[in-house]
Structures are given as C-alpha cells and as structure tokens.
C-alpha cells in the first residue's frame, strides 16, 4: 500500500550547520549509507532500486516536479542485496540513470532528514515528513516540512524540484 510524504530537496553548502541543528534538536542518527540508486525507464512516476549498507529497497514514487514542499506517493519493497532483481529490471526495462551518493540519515519522530553528497552533483539536504498509515494527514505533514525548512535555514532559492536522476540527465 502506498504511503504519503511531503518532502523537499535543496542544494546545501552548510551541511555542518544542518548536522548541528539536527543533533541539538534530538534527531536520531541512523548512520551514513553509501547508496547506489538505479532508475529504470517507466511510463509514469519513477522506479529505482536502492542498494545501500542501511537501505535496500525497490522504490516506486509519483510526485510533481516543483520546488518547495510537494506530495509524493511512495511504495517500497525490501530487497535483499544478493537478489537478481536488478538484473531482471535492467533487462526488462532499461536503465534511465544511476545516482551514487553518501547519505547521512536522521529521524525526528516521523520526519526523515538526508544530508547527501551526490557524485557529480554536489551536496543536498532532503526533508521527508512521512505518513506510513495515513493517520497524520497532508496538512500536518506540510506543517512539519515547513517548520523544519525554517529551522534548518533552507532558502527558497536553494530548493530543487527534480529528482537526482533528472539532474544527472544531460
């Protein structure tokens, strides 16, 4: 069953400051994950296989490519690192893009924070206010996302509307 996120992505030149704010706000640090996201050619939304040390999922999501907080409908399926799923997807769908990143993962309640260093693209921060069982609602998720954008001093000029896969495309 899909869940809902309200999320943002922003370019970030102040990772150390954001890290400090998250730590002083009591964020739960989950670790640093080296992630390879392979995006596949699909007719709607985005489909990627995430291979990491912490997170390994097949992820389908659909969202508007707009800057600022946006609704994302997400479906996740756990993947075992030694499965042949990637080869099946490559052969059947073809690869759209590959994104290689180092990601620091933090949580405050239902809100997930990423501090990303993406090969060839630079440094970013992401905020995902997550409603896994649809008990929180879009209004509260939007409030959370906006609150943390302000807390982390994220400028509207730094917001990015596209996926890393889009930014990797020529």
Summarize the structure.
The chain contains 4 helices and 9 strands; from the N terminus they run E-H-E-E-E-E-H-E-E-E-H-E-H.
Shape label? globular
Cα(first) to Cα(last) distance is: 34 Å
Helix content: 10-25%
Largest sheet: 8 strands, antiparallel, barrel
H-E order: EHEEEEHEEEHEH
Radius of gyration: 16 Å
In the predicted model, the low-confidence regions spanning at least 5 consecutive residues are none
The number of distinct helices, counting runs of at least 4 residues, comes to 4
Q: How would you classify the helix and strand content by structural class?
A: alpha+beta
The largest sheet has its strands arranged as 1-5-4-3-2-6-7-8
The tally of beta strands, per DSSP, is 9
Assess the beta-strand content as a share of residues.
Answer: over 45%
Rounded mean pLDDT score: 95
Pick out its properties.
170 residues, alpha+beta, 8-stranded antiparallel barrel, 4 helices, 22% helix, 46% strand
Question: How do the strands and helices of this protein lay out in sequence?
Answer:
Elements: E1 3-11, H1 15-24, E2 28-40, E3 46-51, E4 56-63, E5 70-78, H2 85-93, E6 95-108, E7 111-118, E8 122-131, H3 138-151, E9 159-160, H4 164-168
Antiparallel strand pairs: 1-5, 1-8, 1-9, 2-3, 2-6, 3-4, 4-5, 6-7, 7-8
């Amino acid at each position: 069953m899909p869940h809902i996120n309200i999320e943002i992505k922003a370019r970030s030149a102040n990772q150390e400051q954001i890290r400090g704010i998250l730590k002083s706000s009591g964020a739960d640090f989950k670790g640093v994950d080296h992630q390879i996201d392979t995006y596949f050619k699909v007719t709607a939304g985005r489909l990627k296989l995430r291979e990491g040390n912490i997170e390994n999922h097949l992820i389908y999501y659909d969202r508007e490519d707009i800057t600022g907080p946006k609704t994302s409908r997400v479906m996740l399926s756990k993947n075992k690192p030694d499965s042949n799923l990637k080869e099946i997807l490559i052969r059947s769908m073809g690869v759209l893009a590959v994104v290689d990143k180092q990601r620091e993962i933090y949580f405050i309640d239902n809100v997930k924070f990423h501090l990303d260093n993406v090969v060839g693209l630079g440094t970013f921060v992401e905020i995902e206010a997550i409603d896994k069982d649809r008990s929180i609602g879009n209004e509260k998720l939007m409030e959370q996302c906006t609150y943390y954008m302000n807390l982390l001093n994220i400028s509207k000029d730094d917001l990015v509307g596209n996926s890393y896969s889009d930014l990797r495309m020529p």
